[in-house]
Amino acid sequence: MTDRLRTDLLDRLRAGFILLLVLAASFALAATASAKPPTDEDCLACHSEAAGKGKQPPKKALSASVHGDAGLSCTDCHADLAKIKELPHGAKVKPVSCSSCHDGMAEKHPFHPMMAADAEAIACQECHGAHDVRKPSDPAAPVSAANVSKVCVSCHETEVKLYAESAHGLAAAGNVKEAPACLTCHRTRVTSAADGAPAATEKQAQEKLCLSCHLDSPDVRARVAPSAGFIAKYEKSVHGQALLAGNEKAANCVDCHGAHTVRKKTAAGAGSSALDIEKICARCHGKVEATFARSAHGKALAKGVREAPTCTTCHGEHGILKHNDPNSPVAAANVSQKVCTPCHSSLRLSEKFGIESDRFSTFEQSFHGLAVKGGIVNVANCASCHGSHDILPSSDPASRISPKNLVATCGKCHPGAGARFASGKIHVDASSKAQEPLLWWIGFIYAGLIVGTIGGMFGHNLLDFVRKSKRHLALRRGEIEEEPAPHRLYVRMTLEERLQHGALALSFIVLVFTGFQLRFPDSWWAGGFRDVVGSVVNYRSLVHRIAAVVMTLASIYHLYYIVFTVRGRQLVKDLWFRLKDARDLVEMLRYNLGLTPVKPKLDRFSYIEKAEYWALIWGTIVMAGTGGAMWLDNHFMNVFGKLGYDVARSIHYYEAILATLAIIVWHFYFVIFNPDSYPLNTAFWTGKLSHREMEEEHPLELERILEAEEHERAKAEEAVEKTKHGPKT
After folding, report:
1. 420 class by beta-carbon count within 10 Å (0-12 exposed, 13-18 middle, 19+ buried)
2. What's the predicted TM-score (pTM) here?
């Protein structure tokens, strides 16, 4: 082989070796490069928007996501990409485990209870998205308040549909800022499955959740007012208190309003009609609902009568209280006025349904109605007779007020009530001549007596007051002089007579106060008295009857006094009317009118005192008789019926007015307001009158006393003279 050939062969071998080295280096470099994790550019070379690989084009989504903002790469989530030796990878990439970074998801997502057992049971991507994960505060995030329902619907279609039609859903659709979305309620532990809590705790959590907006949020309260005020009452209601005490059967917000179906009352198909409310309450109060359904109200409600009452009409809504709570509308003291009256006093409803509109007004004027208004609870109200949930018309044989059941109904409070007890009208309008002519005439006659008698007394006393006031003014001015009177007192009333007067006066005042307290319960003084004494007002009837007994006993003793004692018999003789009394009345009127300068001389008892005494006798007899009839109502009504009781009650009432006004206008004037006696005639206490008082009020009696004394002095002087000079011979 030649050198040239040898050299050429060596050059070729050297070049091939170098080529092999280059190839080996290239392969080594390629192997080294494929062992490194792919970059985002490597991934996006295939998973780009143009390539359209995967469910979403990730490039644009990732750049706007929370992960893109944080600078995370594909391999930070897809960790198994680091094990891929060549691209494009043939094997399917494993699902991403978000818990590698986001631990404690079960605690953060209590609305998915299954996550407590298996954090991967619900793929995070199903709600949050894959490459386009955004913060919940981002309006574009699928889990934002505006969009989260669209995510939840994929699994909870029925619930989301109901929510969309609810008040909450409609508010959210209307871009109301405070409108709750799915997570507003469900991000908290409101299910027992979430934390194993008992049912009562779960319901308490639901209640607090609702109140967190409807009570604690000023924005929500402003939008839903005034309902927010009712919600605040829930915690004090019978339901709220029971729930607070751990009663798992107690109704909370969800039990009545629903969870996803919350709607306004005015919304179409809201389920808040009267009939719907009845069914809602029946979930817990089934027996009551069954009774109510058979009642007049329940039947009307079932027929679609819009004005028919339902549960909340009487009991209220959020602030429902026990029937024995004094603040409850169905409490004994409130049910008639607050529950029954709004409907049964309505002229519109009475005309539409043909019911009487005066039932409450007539009840209010009855003894029962007046007692209820006065704060007495142990007395019949509307429900006592008509029932509560079982109200039926009187024509129904099952009604409590049907003719065959009425006696038994009355007998619950009036033992021994017979057939005549319940005869006559129950709701009596004494002001209607057509309905109750007898009661109307009693009122008419007494009205004339009161106006005429009290008017005459007032006119008489007014003239007397003017005349005496002028005289006292002239005395102070020195225009006239008054002769000095002896400083002497004369017995007017003995101790026994003063005790009779005291018992009579005290019992009369108590009777007036307690009697008119019943008749005028809304008066300022009666209301003020109730505010001071509180429950003591329930003893009003007892105090009234005790005073009546005292007055009756005092009257009986006075009868004994005027019959069996000398002074008492003389008292009656002196109090008997004579023709002189009529002349004194005329002359006193002429004197007070200035028609004569001579004042008539009055005797021991003037026409004024005689009129008062005999009026008192008459009034005592009438008041005792009618009062006794009302006291013994069971026996009295069994004989005279309901009309007899109403007659006795009317006379008792009108006579009380007449007697009270007479005492005030007549008696109180002469012992208090009379210028000659002001500020008080103390004879009722001391039993004595001064010489001046005797001169002014009883001059004839004073003359007789002085004449008798003069006669006794003359006799005494004659006896002394006989003693000095001895008997005449």
Report:
1. middle
2. 0.73
Check if the beta carbon of residue 168 is closer than 8 Å to that of residue 214: no
Residue 318 CB coordination number (10 Å): 21
CA distance 572 to 564: 12
**Separation between Cα atoms, residue 381 and residue 124, nearest integer Å:** 64
How many whole angstroms separate alpha carbon 710 and alpha carbon 729?
29
Q: Is 728 exposed, middle or buried (0-12, 13-18, 19+ CB in 10 A)?
A: exposed
Tokens 């209280």 correspond to what residue?
321
Euclidean distance between CA atoms 714 and 636, whole angstroms: 64
Neighbour-count burial for 61-88, b at 16+ CB within 10 Å, e otherwise: bbeebebbeeeebbbbbbeebeebeeee
Residues 6+ apart with CB under 8 A from 307: 343, 349, 352, 353
What are the tens digits of pLDDT across the range 268-319?
555 556 668 888 899 999 999 999 999 999 999 999 888 899 999 999 888 8
Statement: residue 18 has pLDDT above 70: no
Three-state SS string over 37-50 comes to CCCHHHHHCCCCCC
Give the three-class secondary structure for 689: strand
Pairwise pLDDT comparison (242 vs 30), residue with the higher score: 242
Task: Take residue 392 and report the two structure tokens written for it.
Answer: 């039926």
How would you class 479 by CB atoms within 10 Å of its CB: exposed for 0-12, middle for 13-18, buried for 19 or more? exposed
Rounded Cα distance between 181 and 161, Å, is 13
CATH number given to 464-487+497-678: 1.20.950.20
Both structure tokens of 396: 């129904």
How far from 28 is each of 21, 37, 88, 184, CA to CA, in Å?
A: 10, 17, 19, 58
